[in-house]
Fold this sequence. Notes:
The protein has helices spanning 22-31, 35-50, 55-64, 120-135; strands at residues 8-10, 13-15, 69-70, 83-88, 92-97, 102-107, 116-119. The protein is α+β, with helices and mostly antiparallel strands.
Amino acid sequence: MMNLKNFTIISHQISFNNPYYANLENLLNNDFKTTSVVTQFLTELISLIENWEDIAVREAFIEKEGGYWDWKDLLDFKVTGNWFTFFKFEDLGGYINVDTKTFYLENSLLPNEAVIDMPLEEFIEVLQQWKHILSE
Length: 136
């Protein structure tokens, strides 16, 4: 499990000192840069996990976040499965694999950057740690 201990913060920007996590740095530094935004996403993700088997809750989550069922975008990265988008920023796309509860993060503007994949629970833990860091 990823633990946000090996990082540096310079001018309110986090760096994990590992190029593999460049997209995650980008997401946290640019799109999840306030505790209110992180709190909103955490609340929704935790509710989704707690009601995982409830298809209506899952569909409402996807619709609320402007997501959609997606069987194509991650194929370019050789990721297969049954997933949906749950956020799409200008460059970053966040996906959840329904069968494995895996979170994927890709950067459509920098396709050579690694696709981050981690269990959804681990991504929630990263966001909780990030929220704590932001509140210090």
